[in-house]
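S2.1 Query sequence (Retinoblastoma-associated protein N-terminal domain-containing protein)
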Amino acid sequence: MLEGADFQQICDERLQLGPEARDLATAFCEECQSLSSAHISEVPTGFGATATPTPPTPGQAQSNKQDADACRTATLLYLTKKVLQTLACSDSSQPVSDSGHDPQLTLTNILLSCNISLAAFMRELLTTARDIGPAVEPLLAAKLGPSAWVSGLERLLQVRELQASYVYATVLAKKFRDIFTCYFEPSAQNPGPRGWSVYKTAWLLFLYAKARLLPPFPDLVSAFNLLLCIINFLLAHIPLQHHCFLSSDTQRYPVRTASGVADTLQSLVSLYRASLVDALPLASALNALLQSDLSSLQEQEPGLEQPSDLNTSCLHIPGLFSDASGGSELLQRLEQELQDKLDLVQQEPQGLDFDERPFLLVGGDRKVASNIFQSPGPANSLSSPRPPLKSRMLLSPLRPELTAILASPSPMSRLPIGLCPPTPITSALGASSWLRDMATTTAAQELLDPGSSQDVEPAALDMQHPL
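Output structure tokens follow.
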């Protein structure tokens, strides 16, 4: 743990916590002062094998202690946030301003104040929670009551949900970047979306819609369906000179209406194997959200008028992206309004646990020094001894960059053959990905049909690609 004076400096000067949040965080810190920062639990690392302890050098030991102190401090502050959030939600008759909920106590601000990356925090959260659990359990039981403590510290911190949200945010940012760059381009002279105002505003719109239309900690499938609805909204508004494909392209717009017009939403759902049953209600909910929540769009009297060559079935705001390459005045007002609304969402008692806005920029910027975006892995975990790093992942505690807390979960180091080391997630996805590209033939369906008595030739049962 950090010394008491350093901990108070984080609470008072960096986070500027209110009295109740500061007192509760200080109480947690005092309960955990007896914990040894150098303590590292021995846990299995990969296929049940236990890491062989390696005596650290003095420099490694100091680095490990600093990382452990920062991670435990951030965990205690995040625990303070979750306790105050639980109390605020349990007493609905009490105003939020009087419930102890502190708007400054967001996970993003906590990580910036403790100078720890988001990847490192997510990687060590479960181990740290198990370490501090026995020390803080009596105080938590007294604060929340015995009945509220039965779920345990891991459940209170929502460790699994938080880690899944971090992975999902990274995946969604990459998918958005890939789909956006596939369908849109600013200009032939300036290829790529970076610096394009539409690119950033669309990501903000997706995050705000996800916060309002989906439940807390939404599953990846629902979030991806909503992402396709945002892309569909862009297809209806970005001028055609910035489209990479013509509406007559049957490969990118395979689904057509009776009159032969490209149906953009159904085409996106078909190409990316999403669920049309789930996407259609989300598209309708997105239309209602745009009309009711965003004042900058209400001024334009949006309607359901469609472009002549595309059937998007989404709300149409005339002139929204009329100057798509540079950003119109309406687009700038929309971006600022979305920024303000996301700030408010993050400060709500049950708002976003961490800021997802920089994920889009981090994932696409390959020119940033790789030491800032070190990948989490067993070699860098507090749960086992760590070898020396080539460079420090954490920045100076004076002014850490916001992007420093958003490290990519994908391995940055390359194998000699140029491939990334496998992870449990990539192994599982790789083992089942071939199923997405396979579809049965009519002959196979007839054979599997219980009511079918036809003889089917074995050669007719080959699996074929659906596209």
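DSSP finds 16 helices and two strands in the chain. The beta strands are 262-263, 310-311.
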